[in-house]
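Something for you to look into today, if you have time. I want to see for myself how the chain folds. Leave the record below and I will have a look.
***
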Amino acid sequence: MCGGRGTRMESGTEKPMTELAGRRFIERVVLALKESGRFEKIVAAVSPSTPATKRFLQSTGIETIDTPGAGYPQDLSILLEKVAPSRVLVVPADVPLLTAETVSEIVDKLAAAAVNAPAASIAIEKSFAEGLGVTPSVAFGNDLCHSGITLFDAARAKKGAVEERYVIMNRAEVALNVNTKREKEVAESLVKRANDLAGDARL
């Protein structure tokens, strides 16, 4: 999902095209998905708010689906209608710390949780996200927030509210949904720390 305007970033750049340590958010997410080797294809949902993102993705051979940019639920509904009856892992473009290893772990956990259910999502404990410096966008329950990462059975989840199961995963790679300048600074700090430790195996 890469159709949001990203107004809270206050940068003038489409959020998926924002750079983190020399790579765009959308590049990082697509690379993690590709390198996981878990998907038949990768499709990006774009909107009128992200024309540069659409051009970039198409230049790299990624299929795009146009949505109106009317809001995340509305755009998601359009995406699910177009990919049905497939099972689809929906990932937002603003989780730039994702790695192939994390994606593979997510797929395994959500596939197990989604047996006989139309959807299963990764959730994070609110206290963990706030400890990283993240302000959760979608909080629910006593102390949980939504990562935006969901495995859908598109044939069963195309319309209306669906039963959704949750897997808690307190990991920075999924908790750091970058919506503000402050959260981008947190991401930059984590990438720098990881690169200092990894040497040549840089993020």
The helical segments are 25-36, 51-59, 72-83, 100-113, 126-132, 172-175, 181-198.
